[in-house]
Amino acid sequence: MADDTKSNQKTYHKKATGEALVTAKKHSKDHELKLYGSCFCPFVQRVWISLQFKGLAYQYIEIDPYKKPESLLAINPRGLVPALKHSDWGCYESTVLMEYLEDISNSYPLFPPGDAKLRAQCRLWTDHAQEIAMQMENASKLQNEISKLIEVAHPSGPYFLGTEMSYVDVQIAPWIIRMRRVLTPYRGWPEPEAGSRWASWVDAIENNPHVKATTSTDDLYLDSYERYAENRPDISQVANAVNEGRGLP
Asked: Counting Cβ atoms within 10 Å, is residue 175 exposed (0-12), middle (13-18) or buried (19+)?
């Protein structure tokens, strides 16, 4: 019986599925700008959405987080994703990488151009987006953090600053995707109240073409996070990484 249970336990995926797989294949050719990522990682998806949104040419390289290649370790000795390599330079940490992409490309900016105060506001609430990531295990605290974000967002939206996706939206998009695909089935997270500001925001994120292009099929998230959701002993490193709001070890 124990062997049967073990055989039925799902594992994390090592390749994107659905629209994300199509996008990964489109960006599989060698390029000087390389994104090292894992298909189920929310921090990777932030950077991936940014690349798609800005229309930059790049190469996507899928990484098995338990078999870290030397090319990744040369960029980040801890072997965590996301990581970027641009020619002979490399860096990591999702927020840092998003800002780097803003600096190297003026096309389709995620920060509002020409408004220093509004850009500062975006950076301030980017930090708050990190709090949302940290509270994914605590429903009441998570709801409280979402409510704070809604209070300062554009009143009609649907995005944080209004009708167009911006930096804060990309920061929280991967978590919105995982609320419905992971928290709802595993933790009973409720659907947004119909007609609410949060519902319009979630709908806008879910249907954004750049988000959809980097999102795999639902089963990938269900399978990949099942071990974390059940807190099985053999995945303590994974559980700790997700609970602490960082990349997988």
From this structure: buried
Residues 6+ apart with CB under 8 A from 206: 176, 177, 180, 212
Residue 236's alpha-carbon distances to 61, 96, 120, 206, 228, in angstroms, are 26, 27, 37, 30, 8
pLDDT > 90: percent of the chain: 70
Q: What angle do CA 93, 127, 19 make, to 5 degrees?
A: 55
Q: Are strands 33-37 and 59-62 parallel, antiparallel or unpaired?
A: parallel
- Residue-level pLDDT at 79: 93
Tokens coding 219: 């089963």
Residue count of the chain:
249
In the block, tokens 């850009």 appear at 119
Q: What is the pLDDT of residue 242?
A: 40
Q: Is 67 exposed, middle or buried (0-12, 13-18, 19+ CB in 10 A)?
A: exposed
Q: Residue 138 pLDDT > 80, yes or no?
A: no
* 131 contact partners, CB below 8 Å, separation of at least 6: 145
* pLDDT number for residue 65: 79
Task: Find all residues with CB under 8 Å of 31, minimum gap 6, and list them.
Answer: 57, 58, 59
For the segment 56-72, the average pLDDT, to the nearest whole number, is 93
Are 130 and 98 in contact by the 8 Å Cβ rule? The answer is no
Each residue's pLDDT tens digit, 186-205: 888 899 999 999 999 999 99
Alpha carbons 35 and 33: distance in angstroms, whole number: 7
What is the widest separation between alpha-carbon atoms in the chain?
A: 64
